[in-house]
Amino acid sequence: MNKPAVDQIRTIDRVNATLKQRYNRERRFRRFGLAAVILGLLFVALMFLNIISHGYSAFYQTRILLDIEYRQEVIDPAGARDPATLSAADYAALVKTALRTLYPEVKGRGEKRELYGMVSSGAALVLRQRVMSDPELIGSRQTLWLPADDDIDMLVKGRIDRNAPESERRIKNRVLAWVEQLEARGAIEKQFNLGFLTGGDSREPELAGIGGAVMGSLYTLIVTLLLSFPIGVATALYLEEFAPRNRWTDLVEVNINNLAAVPSIVFGLLGLAVFINFFGLPRSAPLVGGMVLTLMTLPTIIIASRAALKAVPPSIREAALGIGASRTQTVFHHVLPLAMPGMLTGTIIGMAQALGETAPLLMIGMVAFIVDIPGGAMDPATVLPVQIFLWADSPERAFMEKTSAAIMVLLGFLILMNVIAVILRKRFERRW
Amino acid sequence: MLSITPDTVVLGTARKSVITAGFSPVADDARAINGTVGDITSADPRMTARNVNVYYGDKLAINNVSLDIGVNEVIAMIGPSGCGKSTFLRCLNRMNDTIDICRVEGEIRLDDQDIYDSGLDVVPLRAQVGMVFQKPNPFPKSIYDNVAYGPRIHGLTSNKNDLDEVVEQALLKAGLWDEVKDRLDEVGTGLSGGQQQRLCIARTIAVAPEVILMDEPCSALDPIATARIEELIDELREQYTIAIVTHSMQQAARVSQRTAYFHLGELVEVGKTDDIFTTPRHRLTEDYITGRFG
Ligand SMILES: Nc1ncnc2c1ncn2[C@@H]1O[C@H](COP(=O)(O)OP(=O)(O)OP(=O)(O)O)[C@@H](O)[C@H]1O
Ligand SMILES: [Mg+2]
User: Fold this and answer.
1) Residues A219, A129 share a domain
2) Is B56 close to ligand 1, i.e. is its CB under 6 Å away?
3) Which of B10, B75, B14, B11 is nearest to B42 (CA)?
4) Angle at A58 between CA A54 and CA A63, to 5 degrees
5) For residue B100, which residues of chain A lie inside 8 Å, CB to CB?
6) A184 and A224 in one domain?
7) Which region among A421-425, B222-226, B261-265, B284-288 has the lowest average model confidence (pLDDT)?
């Protein structure tokens, strides 16, 4: 009876001797993990901080308050209210007149050009749109906030240093003085810029919007989803549940895994050669973009779906088969519903990749400068990451904030997609 | 009846001699078939297995087993863990088809139909030969849907009322009704282990198969539930044929008319349950049932 007791004391002594060391190791490991997580979060926070601090101002636009007189002799000398005449009228002249009345002392040609340059060329478009939608305005006066030029915008947003010597700044002293006069009167102001979210691209930074690229991305992703989800899930189901295990299926499996590692630009070349050159589909169209991205996301979806199918316990299949369900019934009644959350997650990951993909789309012409907002999958379009690439490549300083803001929009969409993924998962899991 | 290739038979007997060396089996004329002691045949057989070999890859798990399962009979299969009871049972409704590496040789008939015939449809086979698995495996669906699944896919009932009735009867027979009648729409996987096993039994009998294969149906059950299932087996015997694998000698003695003792993939002895438990003829059987083995 004694011996085991002695042995027990020995064991506990031995345990105690190494216990401290064991706990130390554990603590070290935990600290290491924590440090890694903190570092990761720090980088993410830094990235967000950087992007947001650069980009938030793009959601504001500097506007100048002008007293516009819709003069009949400029807009519609004949008085016929013919839409063609109204549309072709020289609205810029109205803006110029308003500026001249504001600064009557400005005389020289060069000086005048600088004065007119304070207001964006988009101001004339605003006036045209107003007159077109309400011709009654002609002959009346109206004080209006009109968009300022991008240099003025940068100055007001503090991105141009007012104290720098004139030679090193894009704004002349004269112009600076006019802006300060406006500021003193409260006639220049940063206002929310809805046009950035709804508008198409433009050569003028102050007019450029992300709306076209958002719609382009949307159409492209819809095409990608409609093609890649059914094809991917069907492929995974066939390979996992129905295909015989032999050399051919092994070969297919290896090739699918290889496809996942193919650089995406190669899919772009393939799309160019097959979809555009061979099948003659239009260039720059979201349809073709979606098809190319389908090629790219398919391996991701197939691999994730197969993993999800593998994770369904075999006992469920046995239960169904043992009761006399056919293989198809077993798969569709029991296996597929259980694998669906995993499949959806894989699909969303694939879609997120597709949303951020640039290279293959460059190859099929989605990099073109497109002002119009696409109305369907066949219209020429660009997508968010390509738009970011285009803006980042533009020399104007004002495009910098647009670039960051576009990244913010892209990240916003990614977060939205992940939220949808989580909600979908929850939905599906609750049914079971 | 012997439709096996000569090669396999030679292999089978070669192994047999190795395995039984060292023991002194009782010399008996009944051993004539495949070295099994006792009478493998049944007067009115529903299923007949002849010279069945089962391989997992290269590994022989069932070695040359022949056995009849009679109409209105409960046959108990006993033997030490890993001896191939489940493997043999799963051959009887071709559940081993689901295991890629598993290969079955020999002949198994349900009535006069060779169930390993290449043209045979396993769906009606499994509707006729139902199975309760060793590990409870309810669907992650509601209790009701679990039981109703079989009748639904086979179109056994024409309306909701009939289906309700079938579900209730199955649950009643499995001794689960009182515990679940107020929560039929809760998930089956939320039940306790023993309740899950009874749910699986209810699911199987809801299809009313002619042969029911039960792989240790009571291993997770308390004595009361076990008694209920044993009663059920007794009831079912009047209409059905039942093969039950069990580790409980008492259970085998209580519910079965015939008992088959498996050892290392071989069918060592088979006979009337009373005879097996009172006067076993093979040394291995005797060792096992007297507790000297396994
Ligand atoms: N899926 C499988 N793959 C490979 N070998 C298997 C497989 N299933 C069973 N075996 C092997 O076949 C032999 C018989 O297994 P089986 O499950 O039939 O035993 P058993 O008699 O039912 O045992 P238990 O009483 O523990 O359930 C064992 O040696 C086992 O290792
Ligand atoms: Mg078993």
Assistant:
1) no
2) yes
3) B75
4) 135
5) 245
6) no
7) A421-425
Residue A252 sits in a domain of what CATH number?
1.10.3720.10
Distance from the Cα of B91 to chain A's closest Cα (Å) equals 12
In a domain, A369, yes or no: yes
In A219-378, the DSSP E strands lie at: none
Question: How much distance in Å is there from the Cα of B79 to the middle of ligand 1?
Answer: 12
Q: Which tokens hold the place of B102?
A: 């598993």
| Residue-range definition of the domain harbouring residue A99 | 61-191
Would you say residue A215 lies in a domain? yes
Closest chain B CA to residue A319: B137
Do A261 and A151 lie in one domain? The reply is: no
Give the tens place of pLDDT for each residue, A184-205: 988 898 999 888 888 888 888 8
- B214 phi and psi angles, rounded to 5 deg: -120, 120
Residue A179 burial class via C-beta count within 10 angstroms: exposed 0-12, middle 13-18, buried 19 and up: buried
Is A394 inside any structural domain?
yes
Same domain, A349 and A217: yes
Interface touch A313/B137, C-beta < 8 Å:
yes
Q: Which residue of A has its CA nearest to B98?
A: A318
CB pairs under 8 A between A and B: 64
Q: Which two structure tokens, joined as six digits, stand for A258? A: 């290889």
Higher pLDDT, B292 or B82: B82
The CA A82 to ligand 1 mean position distance, Å, reads: 90
- Using CB atoms within 10 A of its CB, is residue B239 exposed (0-12), middle (13-18) or buried (19+)? exposed
Considering every ligand atom, which ligand is closest to the CA of B266? 1
User: What is the number of structural domains in chain A?
Assistant: 2
Residues A219 and A331 in one domain: yes
Cβ–ligand 1 contact at B84 (below 6 Å): yes
Q: Which residue owns the Cα nearest ligand 1 atom 16?
A: B84
Residue B82 Cβ contacting ligand 1 at under 6 Å: yes
CB of B64 closer than 8 Å to CB of B51 = yes
Number of Cβ within 10 Å of residue A429's Cβ equals 12
